[in-house]
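INFO  loader      accepted 1 record
INFO  loader      residues=131
INFO  predictor   begin
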Amino acid sequence: MRSSGSPVRVGKMDATAYSSVASEFGVRGYPTIKLLKGDMAYNYKGPRTKDDIVEFANRVAGPLVRPLPSQQMFEHVLKRHDVLFVYIGGESPLKEKYIEVASELIVYTYFFSASEDVLPKYKKRLSLRLL
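INFO  predictor   done
INFO  writer      dumping tokens
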């Protein structure tokens, strides 16, 4: 992954030889794939292909909530991802909750944020999709 410019470093360990470490991280079956980021340990449960694992690692290793600086970038991510979440607005208790939820659900999909002035025509349409 280093050759692709990813910040993710890959390692492996024999959980039968290091059972205390396996126990600390809740490893109960083999093989187990985990991504460690700060104090969080994310379990990978997706397809066991190189591309899927690399996509998971890069998604989880990146920012929890990725900024959308322009409408063009928003349209790009809409084409690239089947499922995603977008927070539109400024700092608020709701955005804090959104970031908290993103930290738990980043293993499944992407989370983005944009200001209202970047996506004014989408604000009403996106909020209706959530209802």
